[in-house]
Amino acid sequence: MAMMPLTSETWWNFMQTHHAFLGILYFNKVDEGKDFSLLERRLFLGMAIFAAWFGVYLKYFYLRRWIPMFFDEVLDDLHLFPGDWLEDHLDSAVCSALGGAVDLLLGKEIVRSVLKKDWETKGGVRGFASSLATAYAALLVVGGVAHIFYVMVLKPKLQFKLLLKWVITVVLKLSVVETGILTVKALAASRGAAKDEAKKT
Known about the structure:
The structure is a single chain. By secondary structure, the protein is mainly alpha-helical. The chain has a domain at about 45-70 and about 85-180. Helix content is about 75%, strand content about 0%. It contains 8 helices and no strands. It is globular and about 65 Å long. Keywords: Membrane, Transmembrane, Transmembrane helix.
């Protein structure tokens, strides 16, 4: 049985509706996805951004403790960061992957699935679940902000390098990791639609 292809137009529409950043950028330009409100999308984007920060933090201050055989001994914090262009980009990719792992640990996709269902307009268990997911997302964003300030105070010599690495990691995470995950979801949705269409014929 032939599967419905995932066209570039279908893929782009899916990204505009579901992507953490593009969903906000195109919120007023698309008709779908309005159950996932603009405020909820901003909270969700905040989760993604601060998960990237935790990925950076884990990479520089914990990963070398957990698997020291992969890292050279560093006596000065300023030497934590790679020196050349290629190593720096690979380092950012590792931070981005760790940020994606933090997403999983923090349940980002579960939060997304709850927030986009428009349960806040309903009472009972569903309304409570929506409120809980919103509060949880807000708490993670506030916690991320507090943690950044804490680290900046604790490591004043590393402020610029850490913030720059965080920005690069966010860009990689949203453009590669988030887009990759959603592309797989779009492909699965396309195949599911093809199967449903085949059952009707």
